[in-house]
Amino acid sequence: CICDKSLPVCVCGKKKEIEIITRKPLTATEEELADNSRSKCAKLRIAEKV
Which is deepest, 17, 26, 39, 47, by most CB within 10 Å? Predict the structure, then answer.
């Protein structure tokens, strides 16, 4: 959708192309950080194609 986010309802008529599964990105656990320090900046975002 390309509508302004301040609008309560979609008015453009465009259908969603993806569904966001995780609102916040997943980050590495403390255990993984201990094993792999480069994983500190990695962030996993999940979306599903509709």
Answer: 39
Range of the domain at 40: 19-49
Place of tokens 């975002």: 45
pTM of the model: 0.58
- What is d(CA 10, CA 15) in angstroms, rounded to the nearest whole number? 9
Q: Has residue 8 been placed in a domain?
A: no
- For residue range 11-24, what is the model confidence (pLDDT) as tens digits? 888 777 889 999 99
Pick the closest to residue 46 from 28, 27, 20 (CA basis): 20
Q: Are strands 18-20 and 26-27 parallel, antiparallel or unpaired?
A: unpaired
pLDDT, tens only, 28-41: 999 999 999 999 99
Identity of the residue numbered 10: C
